[in-house]
Amino acid sequence: MKIKQIQVKNFRLLDNATVNIEDDLTLIVGKNNTGKTSLFEIINVFTQQTHDISFEDFSQSSYRIFKKLYKFYKEYYLVDINETRKEKSEILILKCIPKIKLIIQFEYDIEKDSLINLSEFITDLDENRNDASVLISYEPKESLNLFKSFNDKGELIPWLKENLRLFYQLKCYAIDKDSEFRKEIDISFKNKIKQIVSFESIKASRNLDDVGKDKSKTLQTGFSDFYKESNKEDNSNVEDLETVLTDFSSKLDTKYKVVLDDILKEIKNFGIEPHVTIPTILLKSEFNSETILKNNIKYYYENGEIPLPENYNGLGYSNLIFLVLKVVSFIEKFKKAKAEDKAEFLTILIEEPEAHLHPQMQQVFIKQITKLIKETNISVQLIISSHSSHIIAEAGIDIDKGFDRIRYFNKIDNEIEINDFNNFKHKDNDKETFRFLKQYLNLHKCDIFFADKVIMVEGVTEKMLLPLMIDKVAPSLKNEYISILEVGGAYTQKFKEILHFIKIKTLVITDIDSVDASLPQGKECRTDLENAVTSNSTLKDWIPKKITISELNVCLTEEKFDGNLIRATYQIKESNENTYVARSLEEAIINKNLIFFKSEFTKEQITKKIKSYFTLINQHSPENLENMTCWELRPKSSSAKTNFTFDLMTFSEEETGLKWEVPLYIKEGLEWLANNNTPEI
C-alpha cells in the first residue's frame, strides 16, 4: 500500500496543486516561495491530532471569491422572494465558498495488502480498481451563517480573519476520484487515517548551533529518541542497565529513609504535632533509562589525548548523525507499534535536509537513508523538499529512473505550477539528448531547478565576464538567482526541452561563428565575407534557424525567440556608424571598445595595472595600432583568450579613468532578461 497522489486546494500558495508520489522517494524542488513548505504544512496540520487553522491559511485568490460571493448573497439571496431561486442561490454559494482541501489518494495491492483499515474509504466494488481517496476539508459548519453574521460589519476580509474559526470546521470524506460520490467519516477520522499511513516529519528549522556554548545537545536528543523507539524488551544490554538502576535505587531508598526520619523529628520539636497530623511519607528513587540517556550521558569525539564534547564537533557531522537517527527512530517506532496503533505503511516528510549539512554530508545523508530503507522489510515512502543541487544529483537523477523522482514547483503569473518529470516525454523521443542531460546535470550542477532565470553561454570566457557585464548593463539581475550554464555551442539546443518543461526564463548567449562556405573545411572568416555562413548549431537548428551570415544580420527581434521565455542573442552591428559584425565575444568586445583598446598606456601602468594581452596590443607602434581592425586585434589562441579575459577582470576602470562597454547583443539580451514585465512575443 502506498500514497499515489496528493492534491491541495486553497491552502496558502497552493490554489490547486496535484503532486504524484513515487513508490520510494519523491523530491520536491523549486525556487523560493513556490509552495514546497505549504505542501508539508497541510499534511501535518490536517492529519495530526491537534490542528491550528486560521484565515491566513487560505490562498490569496480565496479572498476575491469571498468578496464576490458576499456580493452575490446580498444582491440575489437577500432580495429574491422566489423560494426556488433562493434555494438555488444558496446551493451555489455553498458550492463555491472557499474550502481548504487535502486529498490523499491511496493505491493498494488487493492480493498482498490488508484492507481492513482502508475499507471505510473504499467507495467502489469494481474489482479492477485498486484505489481509495480521502478528502479532508476545512469548510463552513452551516449554510450561510458566515455571511448572515457579517452583515456589513466593516471590511469583509479583516472580519473573516477575526471570526472565521467560529463558522468553519474540519471534516473528512471518503470520495471516488472518478465521480461525485462522497461519504462522510466520523470525527475520529484522524485516528483512522493514522491506521492507514503513519506520517513523520523532520522540519528544516532546528535549534542548532555550532558555537561553544550551544545547549541543544543534538546527538543527545537523537540517541535518546532512538533508544525510546528501540525494542527495550528484547535487548539484553538494556535489561542489564535497568537491573543496575533498580539495585542503585534500592540502596538510595535506605539512605533517604534515614534523612527523612531526622527531618520528621525536627518537625516535632517545632510543635506541629499533635495539632497537625503528618501522613506517612516515603521517599523513593526512580531511574528511567530513557531519562538517564537523555540527561546524564554526554557524547564526546576523539581528538588526540583529550576527547571533545558534542558541541565542539563540526555542525555538519552532528546534523548528519541527528538526521539519520531521526529516520531510524521513525522506522523503529513504526515497527514496534502496538497492533491497535499499527499503520499499513510509513511516510517520512523531510524538509530541506541541507539546512545544516555541508555539500558532501548532503549526499552521504541521501545515500544512508535510501540504503537504510531498502534494508528494512517495511513499506516506506520518503518525500523530501530541497534547494540543494547535491541532493538532486544524488536522489533526483537516477540511472534507471532519470528525472522521474523530481516534482518541480514553479510560480507563473502568481500561480503555482507543478511539473512532474514523469511527463517529460523527451526522454522517450530523444534518448541520446536525455542521456546527455542526465550526465551534465549530475556531473556539473542542478541549480536550474532553483534558479529565477538561466543564462546559457558557450565557454569559460563568457561565464567569467558575465558578472562584470551584468553589473554594467543589468544590475538588477544581481538580486536574482541566476544559473549560468556553460555548455558549448554544439550542445546548447539539447537543453531546449527541459527549459520549456520547467518554464524558466532563459537567455542563450552564443557566437555567430562565421566560416567560409567556399572552402571544404569551413575555415573561420570575417562576417562580411560574401560566402560567410554560420557553423553554430544553435543558430542553424534552433534559434533563429538561419544559416547564412547575411540572413542572421537582418533577423528581426521576434525571430530570436523560442516561445515567450527563451531568447537567443548573438553578435550584431553596434550602431549605424559602426556596422561591422564581430565573429566572437572577444572580437565583439574589441569592436565595441576600439578607442579603449587603442589608448596609450605608460610602461609603468602596463606593469602595475594590466597584463599580457593589453601589453601585446601596445607592442604595436601607435601608427600601426591605429590602422589595425578588431579582426586583426582579436585573440586567436585559447591562451590568448584566457589572458584577454583576466585582463578585463583585473583592469581598474577607476584608477585609469578608462571604461569598456558591453557589446550591444549582450546588453540587449541582459536587459530583456532583467525585465520582469517582458511582453509576449
From TrEMBL:
InterPro entries cross-referenced by the UniProt entry: AAA_GajA/Old/RecF-like, Bact_Antivir_Def_Nuclease, P-loop_NTPase, TOPRIM_OLD
Domain of life of the source: Bacteria
Pfam family, one: AAA_15
Domain OLD protein-like TOPRIM span(s) in chain numbering: 449-513
Domain Endonuclease GajA/Old nuclease/RecF-like AAA residue range list: 1-392
GO molecular function, a single term: endonuclease activity
SUPFAM superfamilies referenced in this protein's UniProt entry, alphabetically: P-loop containing nucleoside triphosphate hydrolases
Key words, A-Z: Endonuclease, Hydrolase, Nuclease
Name of the molecule in the record: Putative ATP-dependent endonuclease of OLD family
Organism: Chryseobacterium defluvii
